[in-house]
From TrEMBL:
InterPro entries: HATPase_C_sf (IPR036890). It comes from the Bacteria. Gene3D superfamilies: Histidine kinase-like ATPase, C-terminal domain. It comes from Paractinoplanes rishiriensis. This is Anti-sigma regulatory factor.
């Protein structure tokens, strides 16, 4: 497991890269990192929990198509009012992400400001963005 700051974050942004084995036993590490970074942005407790669930769901989607021995790469970008999470994995040949009409995808879009995904070759990425609601 590796935790490093990105070498060239955008001015004013904090970037954290966390890499863990593509195994469900490590998802707690990603959920905890998500909650800690969201708390740093002063997200409301329900926003933090929604984001933790969204990251967990995105990772579960990727674990289902990951190659044996793959690693989940999770890139967190913290800005003044938002947390962006990008999760990537090497996939098995012919792997496909769930359709946007699937229940899993509906969960992602309901819990975040925006969610996108792409799969090309043997690599898949899911990007989540959550903006802090103004109080």
């Amino acid at each position: 497991m590796t935790l490093t700051d990105a070498q060239h974050p955008a001015l004013g942004d904090d970037v954290v890269l966390l890499t863990v084995p593509a195994d469900g036993g490590y998802l707690g590490v990603l959920r905890t990192a998500t909650a800690g970074l969201a708390a740093r942005l002063h997200f409301a407790l329900d926003e933090i929990e929604d984001l933790r669930i969204a990251v967990d769901e995105a990772c579960a989607m990727l674990l289902a198509i990951a190659t044996r021995g793959a690693e989940l790469e999770c890139r967190f970008t913290v800005t003044d009012d938002a947390l962006s999470v990008e999760v990537s994995v090497t996939t098995v040949r012919g792997a496909r992400l769930p359709a946007e009409s699937s229940f899993a995808w509906k969960v992602l879009t309901a819990l975040t400001t925006s969610a996108t995904a792409e799969a090309s070759g043997r690599h898949a990425t899911i990007r989540l963005l959550t903006r802090r609601t103004e109080i």
